[in-house]
Amino acid sequence: MNAALGGDNPDTFEAEERVVIALDFGTTFSGIAYCFPNQHNSKVATVVNWPGIDGESHNAPKIPTLINYNGKNFAWGAAVNPIADNIVGVKLLLDPSQEKPLYLPTSNIKNDLKKLPKAPVMVAADFIGAIYRHALQEISAQVPRSYMDLCQKQFVLSVPAVWSDAAKNSTLQAAKIAGLFPVTMIKEPEAAALHTLHDLGFTLHVGDAFIICDAGGGTVDLISYEVEATSPRLKLKELVPGSGGMAGSLGLNKRFEEAVKNLVGEEEFFRIKKAKAWFRAATQFDREIKPAFRGKSSEEYFVNFPMADFDDDPANGLDSNCWRMTGDDVKDIFAPLITDILRLINEQANEVKIKRPDRGVTGIFLVGGFGSSQYLKACVERAQPGIQVLQPSDAWSAIAKGAALSKLPDTALVESTKATKHYGVEAYSIYDEILDYGENTTTRRDGTIRVLTFTWYIGIGDDLCRDQVIKFPFYRSLDSDFAPDDLIFQDVLYESKDKTSPRHKSKGDAIKLNCTVKADLRGVDRSQFRQKRDIYGKTYIDVQYDLVVKLESALMTFSCEVNGKTLGSVEAKYRY
């Protein structure tokens, strides 16, 4: 599988010619875009031919993120029987820690995980591998085979900005299991921003600021950018920490389901749930009513449940297996999600205005499947008067296209981002009678009194430059007769969303373990370590090293340095 994807042939990575393949792995729909960066006037294209597509969805830039295991048969995307017992929304199971809004029907994450035939990462890997292999076939059909064989394959995977580092790492692991290499990651709203600016061709000015609202199927991500330079290339920086939540359009489908259940009763609803009657109605809501709704009470939609054999209920609009939905009925379904998105946009806008009180927000861009809703656009315009609200013509494929654009040399560059959490470590420091009063202490070999405290190397709102490197210094004291395995150290990286970074674990309300990092220094020359004597005259070894964190677009990578040189190896394990 790896060889077919150009995954483990080292010679391909020395090639001058490249093809960039970007995947928008979505909760409800997924798509792929690609480009050849070395070609003159290289343009980004999308894969539009998919297995199982019918006349209605021909030339579709996205396919349903549906998966079905039936014995040895594996079906995916549009080739899946839509009324079968399919796996839906596996992407959300990669980040079960995401807080679900109260307005969505409750679900049991543990039960959802138990229903899967294998771990979510493996299910995601199966889907990602299938969609990429098909994409390579489609891309290869567009260029001479000899040229395609010369090209180095570079893969880009987009992930929600609001996801935990553990979930981003899970997505990366799924891609690697699928055979993708080398693969990089980009935050979905960042990719959307690159495409929007490239596609709309605005005359931007230094100092302009805009909010990208990426409203997709599962999540809504928001990031605000300021234009730092327009020549020789467009350069952007994040203005305030990104935000988001689980207000994607999948919530509309779930709320429609609840509305039907309330209309006909639970018993009748579960009777038709696996039948074509429900599939037809759900499809009609998803493909016709959602995108067509404009927010007017006078609007009417007739939802059909063929052969459902419902009892008529004229008072509630149910007659002959047809529900007459009024504009108010549809508005009730949209209402809490719209409210949540408007809140998120308003919070970003207010923070931008605080950051730059004399200039404020230049514009708001709505991208993603839900972002193409005209009703959402009208609601945002009413909530943010005086700020232009724009939707790219192909908002649905903006993320995949933007992810591919991120690898073009002359496209816009996001030079810095804002940290959304504190990141740091817990270690012993010298006891401070005021700051550390009441905390447990210990006496070290050198006679000093120490106390466990947090050192936060990254703070909420910090500017994080592209590919910035941050060093977390550590040291260990070992007996002079230490064994080789004593040079394997486990260190914990913590995160916190507390507004003020806490000094002690007892004082923090939102301190979480981010990942455990194992540093293996067994291969390091012993002369790199210092020999010391304790207060009793006994010799010991002082091992000092730096855990080096490199901040990439959507993920942190780790290495280890001893005396300024990269030595040893590092393995990070995330807590899911």
TrEMBL record:
Keywords: ATP-binding, Nucleotide-binding. Pfam families: HSP70. CDD domains: ASKHA_NBD_HSP70. GO terms for molecular function: ATP binding; ATP-dependent protein folding chaperone. It comes from the Eukaryota. InterPro entries: ATPase_NBD, Hsp_70_fam. This is Actin-like ATPase domain-containing protein. It comes from Glonium stellatum.
